């Protein structure tokens, strides 16, 4: 019984839904147990310039469209992407640009911590995971997703499918746009961007002027201090516009509550979420527990909408 099931499975033809296999001759597919007719396989023809134009025409259209964004999110880690998901779903009328310095999205969220796979989130962050439809083990006060990469890839695929979101990756924010009112009050009014590879070579190349994106609200989710982290907090602190307080020592219980509660507009026009906040508030580090990143992102979406309506 068991072996016949295995044999049937082994003999069953593989299929790619919608694939035009064997010129539509499915009997041939069944007979050979192959998806395509491999010996005579060929792709639809294309000219190289069509590939270039397919990419560049869309990218430059997006650059044009998002040069004036409603909201810019800096950093596509767990906090930034959670924020983007809630914001863009709730407000399909808003243009939301995400700027990510790395080629890959996800920040420190492809592993659960210490290079282990599983990802721990304390309740009530499970509500967000249910919304995304990801399976998890319920351990009482916390849940465990079998792999952090499952979380971040599911979340990013949902965010990227939203029509009002554009991810500019391999692009870093290397400065902020500010405006100074007659009263002397300063507010953030957008971001200054550059290709990350260009930003990394300012010391040995010249003529590398940046690009800009204007936005009513900037949400900074660049993580704690590191080679690229805590960017907006550090930039404003360097200008004497914001006081920087370095991340405190590890205390999971205090740290997660502090990050979620403290999520706010830290400077006019700039909302801060995720671990970057610890560089602003000196809140504790928390180690590999991610509920606070998710719910800080959710909280940041709410705050950003209030700021957006105010400005
Ligand atoms: C070395 C190390 C130490 C860690 N220590 C802790 C800890 O102490 N406490 C803790 O809770 N977790 C720690 N973690 C785990 C985990 O990585 C973070 O908590 C979690 O990923 C933070 O989520 P986040 O969304 O706030 O930021 P991140 O996951 O760090 O995401 C930030 C994103 O912003 C991008 N970015 C940064 N600067 C810019 C810029 N200028 N322009 C555009 N994009 C930018 C980054 O590329 C990144 O993708 C650590 C991870 C590492 C690798």
From TrEMBL:
The keyword DNA-binding does not apply. GO terms for molecular function: cysteine-dependent adenosine diphosphate thiazole synthase activity; iron ion binding. Its EC number is 2.4.2.60. The modification 2,3-didehydroalanine (Cys) is found at residue 207. It is an enzyme of class 2 (transferase). It catalyses: [ADP-thiazole synthase]-L-cysteine + glycine + NAD(+) = [ADP-thiazole synthase]-dehydroalanine + ADP-5-ethyl-4-methylthiazole-2-carboxylate + nicotinamide + 3 H2O + 2 H(+). Pfam families: Thi4. Keywords: Cytoplasm, Iron, Metal-binding, NAD, Nucleus, Thiamine biosynthesis, Transferase. One of its GO terms (cellular component) is nucleus. Substrate binds at residues 79, 100-101, 108, 173, 209, 224, 275, 285-287. Its cofactor is Fe cation. Binds 1 Fe cation per subunit. NCBIfam families: sulfide-dependent adenosine diphosphate thiazole synthase. Belongs to the THI4 family. HAMAP family: THI4. This is Thiamine thiazole synthase. The lineage of its organism: Eukaryota, Fungi, Dikarya, Ascomycota, Saccharomycotina. The gene is STI35.
């Amino acid at each position: 019984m068991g072996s016949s099931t295995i044999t049937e499975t082994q003999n069953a033809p593989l299929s790619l839904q919608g694939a035009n296999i064997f010129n539509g001759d499915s009997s041939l597919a069944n007979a050979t147990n192959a998806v395509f007719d491999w010996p005579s396989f060929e792709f639809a023809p294309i000219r190289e310039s069509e590939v270039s134009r397919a990419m560049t025409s869309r990218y430059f259209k997006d650059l044009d469209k998002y040069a004036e964004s409603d909201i810019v999110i800096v950093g596509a880690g767990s906090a930034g992407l959670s924020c983007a998901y809630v914001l863009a779903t709730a407000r399909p009328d808003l243009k939301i640009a995400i700027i990510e310095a790395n080629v890959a999205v996800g920040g420190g969220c492809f592993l659960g911590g210490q290079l282990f796979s599983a990802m721990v989130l304390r309740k009530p962050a499970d509500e967000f995971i249910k919304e995304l439809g990801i399976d998890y083990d319920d351990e009482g006060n916390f849940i465990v997703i079998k792999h952090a990469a499952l979380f971040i890839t599911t979340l990013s695929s949902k965010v990227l499918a939203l029509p009002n979101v554009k991810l500019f990756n391999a692009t870093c924010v290397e400065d902020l746009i500010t405006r100074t009112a007659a009263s002397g009050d300063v507010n953030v009014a957008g971001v200054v961007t550059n290709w990350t590879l260009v930003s990394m070579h300012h010391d040995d190349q010249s003529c590398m002027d940046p690009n800009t994106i204007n936005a009513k609200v900037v949400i900074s989710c660049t993580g704690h201090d590191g080679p690229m982290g805590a960017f907006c907090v550090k930039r404003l602190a360097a200008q004497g516009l914001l006081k920087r307080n370095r991340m405190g020592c590890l205390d999971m219980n205090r740290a997660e509550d502090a990050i979620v509660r403290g999520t706010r507009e830290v400077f006019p026009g700039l909302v801060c979420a995720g671990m970057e906040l610890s560089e602003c508030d000196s809140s504790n580090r928390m180690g590999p527990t991610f509920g606070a990143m998710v719910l800080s992102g959710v909280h940041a979406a709410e705050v950003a909408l209030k700021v957006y309506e105010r400005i």
